Amino acid sequence: MARATATRADEIHARLRADILGGVLAPGEKLAFGQLQARYDVSTGVLREVLPRLVEQGLAVSEAQLGFRVVPVSVPDLLELTDTRVFVETEALRRSIAHGDVEWESAVLAARHRLSRTASLDTDGRVSEAWLAAHSGFHGALLQACPNTRLVHIAESLRDVSEVYRCWSVRSPESAARDVEAEHDRIATAAVDRDADRAVDELRRHIELTTDLLIAGAGA
């Protein structure tokens, strides 16, 4: 029985996480138990287990007397998040390159190929769940060989929160002209070539450009 409950909690956690990252649940939106029970056909007990996990991952916030909400967004927070993410993720990438083997190189290239073959937008113009998963998989593969698992976990959590911002802004003209595939190619190539300085620089540019375009889109 306990295992079944845990499995159900994992399922609901995955669905809520996908809906937050995909913008179905908007930044700052209240996560009311009654509404969530109806939408996801889930018990209060499972929600009491799942929502704190989302808070721990930075995708939701808990407010005394007010309950849970999707993490709110703002330009100052995005800038702070970006600065922290660059600091953490580039260090994890540098360590991953230093420790990665041929299997790691293969995983990076496979993840890059999958991402390049995945449509980024759904028919309704939203960032697709499949692309979000492939994008996360690519960035995760880059860090896979980093021996410091705590560092990798922090990097993954920061990247998840940064994805919330994609649904906050509209696509700006600059964003439409961006060649994100080329950016991913440059990061992957530098990583498997073991050029840590170039890989770190490309990753930093990639993250910071995303932030610049999100801010431009938010003001559009």
Please characterize this protein's 3D structure.
- This protein starts with a helix and ends with a helix.
- The chain has 10 helices and 2 strands, in the order H-H-H-E-E-H-H-H-H-H-H-H.
- The protein has a two-stranded antiparallel ribbon with strand order 1-2.
- Helix 1 (2-21) crosses helix 3 (44-56), helix 4 runs antiparallel to helix 10 (196-218) and helix 9 (180-192) runs antiparallel to helix 10.
- Strand 1 (60-63) and strand 2 form a beta hairpin.
- It folds into 2 domains: 8-70, Winged helix-like DNA-binding domain superfamily/Winged helix DNA-binding domain (Arc Repressor Mutant, subunit A), CATH 1.10.10; 75-219, Four Helix Bundle (Hemerythrin (Met), subunit A), CATH 1.20.120.
- It has helices at residues 2-21, 33-40, 44-56, 75-99, 102-116, 129-143, 149-164, 173-176, 180-192, 196-218, and strands at residues 60-63, 67-70.
- 69% of the residues lie in helices and 4% in strands.
- The chain has 220 residues and is mainly α.
- The model has no long low-confidence stretch (mean pLDDT 88).
Summarize this entry quickly:
This protein has ten helices and two strands.
**Largest sheet report:** 2 strands, antiparallel
How many domain modules? 2
pLDDT below 50 for ≥5 consecutive residues: which ranges? Answer: none
Q: Percentage of helical residues? A: 55-70%
CATH fold-level name of the largest domain: Four Helix Bundle (Hemerythrin (Met), subunit A)
Percent of residues in beta strands: under 5%
Give the name of the CATH superfamily of the largest domain: GntR ligand-binding domain-like
Distance between the termini: 51 Å
Number of helices: 10
Shape: globular
Structural class: mainly alpha
Strand order of the largest sheet: 1-2
CATH architecture of the largest domain: Up-down Bundle
- Overall pLDDT metric: 88
Counted beta strands: 2
Order of helices and strands: HHHEEHHHHHHH
Rg calc: 18 Å
